């Protein structure tokens, strides 16, 4: 950590200025707009027939909207409704989100400029201008992040006897213990690198933890260069718990950065260490596998590309705030970065590593209490899942309801002598997960197991390659989907012989087959043996594993073939009903909304008088509240204890509601460039249930952020005594409840 003395001026400042304090009126900054032609009539003042729905003024910039989502996550660290360790978790999640934002989104914009491939989005903003705005906003967010950490989270944890001990306050016992720890655990494996012609600047991998050390004096060979690099070994924990015998009680933690900083002189015997400053370099981590060059071996091409992921082009430099400018300038030059890419840090350079606190500190009283997910009574009975699903369809909402029926369905199928075949898509699941184990068992038991693994699931590529190898070793057939289209659909198809017939059992979901994520993400699971849905899923698998013309499906909507167009048709139908004076309503809940034709269709429906509610967790390029265009559209984002991940498309349909649940967001990549499915709810009770659960989100006034027409987000303000939380309501209604 940076450990400059605190001056008297800093001591007199409040922990956070009033503009940074979280309250019910907090507003996140508007998205900057392109300068407009002064001779052009403002879009709010034009007649509807004069407005081109492709006008850039009608769209927010995708990347800046993404950055705003990260800002809303950061604000959870300020929300006193969350327990203090959960608030620290949100701070870590924000840090991880920002890492990915720079690795992928910022890196992509920089690549456009580097290779002269600039492409404006629907908002019309040039990538260079977007990067400038990102730098301005990201610097504000990072400063806020560290002020929250240092002025609020650390003090509140200290009040709970969880302390982060800085080296400036170590007592003699602690200093002696740290010295031994450094001697026994750090010094034997750390490799300082003095910089000179024989020791060029080391090639630093993406997001590795390093120190730049300023030295004075000549070494034994007469060298006098003045700078050295100390990479912190990845095998060392970034946070270490001090033993009780050197502390006065409670949990006492020390950063590896403090340990190395305090003993930097031992790395350079005889030299004078003038300064030791931690830094971290972020690189482009997006994999670019050229579909035209991979031949027939996608897995091999991906393995090759994974080797280079850690050494992509430089994107961001984070460094201790007290590092002298001449050293910073030297590093910027070394990494070919500009001042706007520099982030001076008042704390650990990688806050996501603070997640280790949850393992080092046994304080369940400082976290959300655990809960038992609910389970429908018939699924919990001993009659078996096939029998239960034969009787009726089941709809589950995780994590409020258990994910175990999905795992149990596969496990039961793996053992059942009547099951002859299993087919499944996998996007993120883990090579040793319960799902993977069940598929391996099924293959070893002689079932025909076919698995479509999406190797290009970002940051899960290596895990998916390992999973593919494990399944192949067990005798399963593994395919990698379609080269130019990621397989994002969530499907299981189990074929079971029942008498003279073959019955298809199906699971469809909005989330990944990952038991860990199912405890953290909100997602729907649907289990059925409906014949037509089973036939549809069979046809989708035929397209994925074989080669055929587009196969017609009856009930599912299937991207990239029918999903987008059917969504547009259902939106337009609501508009037509509204124009006829019939009641109309659209509710869409997705993670992101960017697909331009979808946005334009929603604008037209709003102009026709359709009441539209959009629950968009993350990126939203649609601009609500514009008179004559989107005045009937409300957009909200709900951020809470669980990550919102369900995708729901609800249409009133002239009093005969249609509800589709889907793996697909309202983005161009989902609707046009991925294999996705949306499945209908055919049972009136299930349709009514989902509508009720959507209403929980629409009436949430504690964790709901409302998107304004200028691009800012305003936190909902509950009336006294009227506190509504969608996630709490769902926990109360669905969890720990056998129905």
UniProtKB/TrEMBL annotation:
Annotated binding of Mg(2+), by residue: 428, 458
Amino-acid positions noted as binding ATP in the UniProt annotation, renumbered to this chain: 97, 521, 617, 645
Posttranslational mods: An intermediate of this reaction is the autophosphorylated ppk in which a phosphate is covalently linked to a histidine residue through a N-P bond.
Superkingdom, natural source: Bacteria
The enzyme's E.C. designation: 2.7.4.1
Active site: 488 (phosphohistidine intermediate)
Annotated GO MF terms: polyphosphate kinase activity
Record family assignment: Belongs to the polyphosphate kinase 1 (PPK1) family.
PANTHER family with a match to the protein in the record: POLYPHOSPHATE KINASE (PTHR30218:SF0)
Protein name (Swiss-Prot/TrEMBL): Polyphosphate kinase
Gene that this polypeptide is encoded by: ppk1
């Amino acid at each position: 950590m940076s450990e400059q003395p605190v001056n008297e001026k800093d001591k007199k400042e409040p922990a956070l200025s009033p503009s940074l304090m979280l309250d019910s009126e907090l507003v996140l900054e508007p998205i900057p707009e392109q300068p407009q032609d002064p001779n052009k009539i403002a879009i709010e003042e034009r007649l509807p027939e004069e407005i081109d729905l492709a006008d850039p003024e009608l769209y927010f910039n995708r990347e800046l909207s993404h950055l705003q989502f990260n800002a809303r996550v950061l604000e959870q660290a300020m929300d006193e409704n969350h327990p203090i360790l959960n608030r620290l978790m949100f701070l870590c999640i924000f840090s991880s989100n920002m890492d990915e934002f720079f690795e992928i989104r910022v890196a992509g914009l920089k690549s456009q400029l580097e290779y002269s491939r600039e492409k404006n989005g629907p908002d019309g903003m040039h990538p260079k201008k977007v990067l400038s705005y990102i730098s301005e906003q990201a610097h504000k967010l990072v400063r806020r992040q560290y002020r929250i950490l240092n002025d609020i989270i650390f003090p509140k944890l200290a009040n709970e006897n969880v302390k982060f001990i800085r080296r400036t306050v170590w007592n003699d016992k602690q200093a002696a213990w740290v010295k031994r720890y450094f001697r026994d655990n750090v010094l034997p494996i750390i490799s300082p690198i003095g910089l000179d012609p024989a020791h060029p600047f080391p090639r630093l991998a993406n997001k590795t933890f390093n120190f730049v050390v300023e030295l004075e004096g000549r070494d034994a060979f007469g060298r006098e260069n003045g700078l050295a690099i100390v990479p912190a070994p990845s095998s060392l924990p970034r946070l270490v718990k001090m033993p009780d015998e050197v502390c006065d009680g409670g949990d006492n933690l020390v950063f590896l950065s403090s340990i190395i900083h305090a003993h930097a002189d031992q790395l350079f015997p005889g030299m004078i260490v003038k300064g030791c400053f931690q830094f971290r370099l972020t690189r482009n981590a997006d994999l670019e596998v050229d579909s035209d060059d991979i031949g027939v071996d996608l897995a091999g091409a991906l393995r090759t590309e994974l080797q280079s992921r850690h050494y992509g082009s430089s994107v961001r430099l984070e460094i201790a705030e007290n590092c002298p400018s001449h050293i910073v300038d030297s590093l910027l030059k070394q990494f070919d970065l500009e001042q706007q890419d520099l982030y001076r840090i008042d704390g650990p350079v990688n806050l996501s590593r603070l997640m280790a606190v949850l393992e080092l500190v046994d304080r369940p009283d400082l976290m959300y209490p655990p809960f038992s997910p609910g389970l429908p009574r018939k699924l919990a009975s001993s009659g078996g899942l096939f029998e239960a699903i034969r009787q009726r369809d089941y709809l589950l909402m995780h994590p409020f309801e258990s994910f175990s029926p999905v795992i149990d369905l596969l496990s039961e199928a793996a053992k059942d002598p009547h099951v002859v075949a299993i087919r499944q898509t996998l996007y993120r699941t883990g090579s040793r997960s319960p799902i993977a184990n069940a598929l391996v068992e099924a293959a070893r038991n002689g079932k025909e197991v076919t698995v479509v693994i999406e190797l290009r699931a970002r940051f899960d590529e290596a895990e998916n390659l390992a999973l593919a190898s494990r399944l192949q070793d067990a005798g399963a057939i593994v395919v990698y989907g379609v080269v130019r289209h990621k397989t994002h659909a969530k499907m299981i198809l189990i074929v079971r012989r029942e008498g003279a017939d073959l019955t298809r059992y199906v699971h469809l979901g909005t989330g990944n087959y990952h038991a860990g994520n199912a405890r953290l993400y909100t997602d729907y699971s649907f289990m059925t043996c409906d014949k037509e849905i089973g036939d549809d899923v069979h046809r989708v698998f035929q397209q994925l594993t074989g080669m055929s013309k587009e196969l017609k499906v009856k009930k599912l909507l299937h991207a990239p073939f029918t999903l987008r167009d059917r969504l547009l048709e259902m939106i337009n139908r609501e508009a037509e009903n509204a124009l006829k004076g019939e009641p109309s309503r659209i509710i869409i809940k997705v993670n992101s909304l960017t697909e331009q034709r979808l946005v334009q269709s929603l604008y037209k429906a709003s102009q026709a008088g359709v009441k539209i509610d959009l629950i968009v967790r993350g990126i939203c390029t649609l601009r609500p509240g514009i008179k004559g265009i989107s005045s009937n559209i409300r957009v909200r984002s709900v951020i809470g204890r669980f990550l919102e991940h369900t995708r729901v498309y609800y249409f009133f349909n002239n009093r005969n509601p249609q509800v589709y649940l889907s793996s697909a967001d309202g983005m161009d990549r989902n609707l046009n460039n991925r294999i996705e499915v949306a499945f209908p709810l055919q049972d009136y009770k299930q349709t009514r249930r989902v509508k009720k659960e959507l209403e929980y989100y629409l009436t949430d006034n504690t964790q709901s952020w409302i998107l304004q027409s200028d691009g800012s987000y305003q936190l909902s303000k509950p009336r006294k005594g009227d506190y509504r939380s969608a996630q709490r309501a769902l926990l109360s209604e669905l969890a720990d409840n056998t129905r």
